[in-house]
Amino acid sequence: MSDERGRGRKxxxxxTQHDFVQxxxxxxxxxxxxxxxxxxxxxLLLPTRIKRAALNTADAALATELTYGTLRMxxxxxxxxxxxxxxxxxxxxxxxxxxxxxxxxQLLATRVATHAAVNESVELARQVGSRxxxxxxxxxxxxxxxxxxxxxxxxxxxxxTGDDDRLAIEHSHPVWVVRAxxxxxxxxxxxxxxxxxxxxxxxxPRVNMVALPGLVPAGETAGLGEANTFSPTGFVLAGGxxxxxxxxxxxxxxxxxxxxxxxxxxxxxxxxxxxxxxWLDLCAGPGGKAALLAAEALAVGAELVANxxxxxxxxxxxxxxxxxxxxxxxxxxxxxxxxDAHPEAFDRILLDAPCTGLGALRRRPEARWRKLPxxxxxxxxxxxxxxxxxxxxxxxxGILAYVTCSPHIAETRGIVATALKKWGGAxxxxxTAGVLQGLASSPLDLPGDGGSGSVQLWPHRHxxxxxxxxxxxxxx
Length: 476
Description:
α14 (288-300) links the parallel β5 (278-281) and β6. Residues 1-18 have low confidence and may be disordered. The chain folds into two domains: 23-150, Orthogonal Bundle (N-utilizing Substance Protein B Homolog, Chain A); 256-474, Vaccinia Virus protein VP39 (Rossmann fold, 3-Layer(aba) Sandwich), CATH 3.40.50. The chain contains 21 helices and twelve strands. The chain has helices at residues 23-38, 42-52, 57-72, 74-85, 94-109, 114-128, 131-145, 149-157, 163-171, 175-187, 194-201, 242-248, 258-268, 288-300, 311-321, 338-341, 367-370, 373-392, 413-423, 432-439, 459-462; strands at 208-211, 225-227, 234-237, 253-255, 278-281, 303-307, 330-331, 346-352, 394-404, 427-429, 454-456, 468-474. Strands 5, 6, 7, 8, 9, 10, 11 and 12 form an eight-stranded mixed β-sheet that branches. The chain has a four-stranded antiparallel β-sheet with strand order 2-3-1-4, covered by helices on one side. It is of the alpha/beta class. Keywords: Methyltransferase, RNA-binding, S-adenosyl-L-methionine, Transferase. Residues 173-475 form the SAM-dependent MTase RsmB/NOP-type domain. One of its GO terms (biological process) is regulation of DNA-templated transcription. Pfam families: Methyltr_RsmB-F, NusB.
């Protein structure tokens, strides 16, 4: 095997009929490289690249599987690559490492023929690296192909330093994330579900849709898919392109996870609304929950204000709200100042706080490698500032829904506990579990939480993103 790492000046040679990479693999590689190079989001970039490449249905499905599969299992593949290459992945040129990860996924997790996976990976290496990198890539992937997936798993797991490390290797999650999930499940007395959770994180989620209530005629979603298990406003898409479906219905049917629907509905249906109530979506980008709240507000005669500090995300909020025939202003203010800027101004507030996104790893698998433990501390400071401001902007008797798409205790129960301590008797928790059970189409499996008033949804248990929801009432 060549000892080159793929660095150095690219060697040019005349192109031949063999200089070809199948379009689906090319698209997958481009997205994986963009995730690494520019922190791109695969779920946003991939559809664009598929459209630009004019992939047919079969190739689009292959590109999707190769992209998400590689990103999900990157941690495991890196261990295999390091073993096969005889060097740490940090010593491999990043572009060539992307090629090797993509090749390893094809060899270990798909039915792609070995010769196709290796040969096209070598051609990719030639195009993005040096001539020496092609020999290195060929050697590493040939070595990987000589052992089965199970043999590689046993070999890599033999080096595990403990149970958390074993789970991290096997299910391709950072150890710190595994430990955070374990801690959150332990609070519920469900620590034994950790394996199931990690497995669910690596399963491709179904496409879930929401039909904005009151804006989609009854029966119009018939035949489009199966009704959600819990959310009364959504369904699982049976097939077809969700983008076309959204366009055909002017955005009133749109992609939205069932857990996100439940989070918004927990606020709007916590108790009967009165005409003239003022509602606020404090951190509204990209606008999915805001659109659902706007439809709910329209039905009861409430007024919604959406706020989003980041201009690009505020634009997305406006686009989402265009589906609702109501005037919903979109402000671009600092959410941490709302308590001072708008004291006691709103009857209901949704705070879908910026977070690590560890609850949506099924949809954004790269997030597990992008976030670090120090990010939790930085986000916790922001979350504490936002919940304090939101409570300040809430009228006495008003309701705040604190929501995160993360089950990390420091971002969830810890934030709520700190707010309750600061506000003392002026804020109390509501029966969030009771509210959700009351609006859900089927009973939710929600273990007792010691009276905390919080609900944690899970991918393995509820089929949703891991949304955390707490309803708080300001009493004075």
